[in-house]
Amino acid sequence: MGGKGTSSDTVDLFVIGGGINGCGIARDAAGRGLSVTLAEMNDLASATSSASTKLFHGGLRYLEYFEVRLVREALIERETLLRAMPHISWPMRFVLPYHKDMRFEGETPTSKLLNAVMPWMKGRRPAWLIRLGLFMYDHLGGRKILPGTKTLNLGHAPEGAPLKGKFQRAFEYSDCWIEDSRLVVLNARDAEARGARIMTRTKVMTATRQDGLWVVELENTETGRHETVKARALVNAGGPWVKDVITSTLHQNASEGVRLVRGSHIVTRRLFDHDKCYFFQGADGRIIFAIPYEGDFTLIGTTDVEHEDPSAKPECTEAEAQYLCDFASEYFKQPVTRDDIVWTYSGVRPLYDDGAKSATAATRDYVLKLDDAAGAPVLNVFGGKITTYRKLAEAALAKITPFFDHAKGDWTAGVALPGGDFAVDGVQRLVDDLKSAYPFLDDYWAGRLVRAYGTEAVQVLGDAATIEDLGQDFGATLTAREVAWMMRHEYARRAEDIVWRRTRLGLRMTKGQIKALDDWMTSGEAMAAE
């Protein structure tokens, strides 16, 4: 049976939701001097924020919807994020093959305009329009690190080798990769380092206004323990559950709607030998990416399918997997089949319901709604994309800080996340230094640790002089010492937290190894190692 407890102090801000928006807001608020508590009912990044396409990008296709402000903000933000987290993010070149029969998604404003003035195009997407879009993409955000667009002759370039012969020309441009769930964890860690309290596996049962404060009733989903926290302001960053939180937890009427859109991905064996990403456009006007993934794999996604129930676990359906295989097979010489798939994953994007006819056309912009009519304010967060999470947090704090005289101003731009305090081009030097300090590491192992922990990799390994010093070997270079670090510093509690979120080592581990890891993590031995 769980016990009951009451926090003695009243915090400034209580945040519901441990995805990227909730953790980003908690970090920003804590750094401004606000006292913050965050509750996540599961593990951090256990829903949408670990199931993205792993890109932070301007959103090239959003230009067709005339979402210029959103694209410009995201483009500017790319390089801000690169500087703050060069271990978990890095530049990537994108190859967009072109052929004359490419078509628009039928409902975009651009397609309607072009059909009106150039009806003979019959919905086709001309090369000059793509090049114009890429010109805007290159110049809207004021690039300093990322190289600009160039044209490739696929008949001679190595990027053309895996593709069908009809693709003779491509445009190559820049965007960036991001380790999405690690981004969430690092924001939570930094928030905690600045004074925030991060509560995982803690469900908000109810939150009610009483005497000018929010009274929040919590339940730990592991122990059953109940706790009450009082807060001067509340943020609802529930992601797919944002509307449920409003109606069922806060017991308020929701005038705004959320549109749940499922994005599914497949991971296949490695389909090509270079390190660039493909941007494919389909006959239906939609787009997918084919991305080098975890060294030996290719990530293909995503779909856009309506998802009605946030409590229903999103899964890649047979139809979605086949759609992605067929889509990629329109481009690759060697067809992509179901036998190539080694893993699938799916996430639900909680888009603001702007009344668009299709899931693809629904806005990816974020919407923040403040309600302070009945006293203590609540800010409800709708939508958003991983690229603009920091700007969303700033916008959220702009609405919250007027209620707190002691709150400081914007501060997060350019401030490194844990382990990210090194130059954007400094990864290889860190890898070399780590191998020198720990000669038992090979290139893959050292690179994996640097990409996960950056300058903190030496703290993970500590005083180890041999592999044996790292404790139990769970497979795929994962050892007890690293697991203990993630349990102590990164809120990990079960094997799933580690092998599918903080790392992607589940792709390389057997079911038996993962079970052995879970058994160890829930044993007294793990507690002693922590």
UniProtKB/TrEMBL annotation:
Enzyme Commission (EC) number: 1.1.5.3
EC category: oxidoreductase
Catalytic activity: a quinone + sn-glycerol 3-phosphate = dihydroxyacetone phosphate + a quinol
GO molecular-function terms, A-Z: glycerol-3-phosphate dehydrogenase (quinone) activity
GO CC terms in record: glycerol-3-phosphate dehydrogenase (FAD) complex
Cofactor(s) needed by this chain: FAD
All residue ranges annotated as the Alpha-glycerophosphate oxidase C-terminal domain in the record: 412-517
One Pfam short name: DAO
Gene3D superfamilies: 6.10.250.1890, Alpha-glycerophosphate oxidase, cap domain, D-Amino Acid Oxidase, subunit A, domain 2, FAD/NAD(P)-binding domain
UniProt keyword Lyase, yes or no: no
GO biological process: glycerol-3-phosphate catabolic process
Source species, domain of life: Bacteria
Keywords on record: FAD, Flavoprotein, Oxidoreductase
Residue ranges occupied by any FAD dependent oxidoreductase domain in the UniProt entry: 12-361
PANTHER family for this protein: GLYCEROL-3-PHOSPHATE DEHYDROGENASE, GLYCEROL-3-PHOSPHATE DEHYDROGENASE, MITOCHONDRIAL
Family: Belongs to the FAD-dependent glycerol-3-phosphate dehydrogenase family.
Protein name (database record): Glycerol-3-phosphate dehydrogenase
Organism the protein comes from: Roseovarius bejariae
Lineage of source species: Bacteria, Pseudomonadati, Pseudomonadota, Alphaproteobacteria, Rhodobacterales
